Amino acid sequence: WKQSVIAEGRAKGYVQTLSGRRRHLSDLVSTDPALRSRAERQAVNAVVQGSAADICKKAMVDVYNDLTPLGASILVQVHDELVVLVEKHQVDELLGKLVTAMGDGVTYNGIPLKVSCHSAISWAEAKGK
Question: Of 9, 13, 95, 104, which is least surrounded by CB within 10 A?
Answer without folding.
Answer: 13
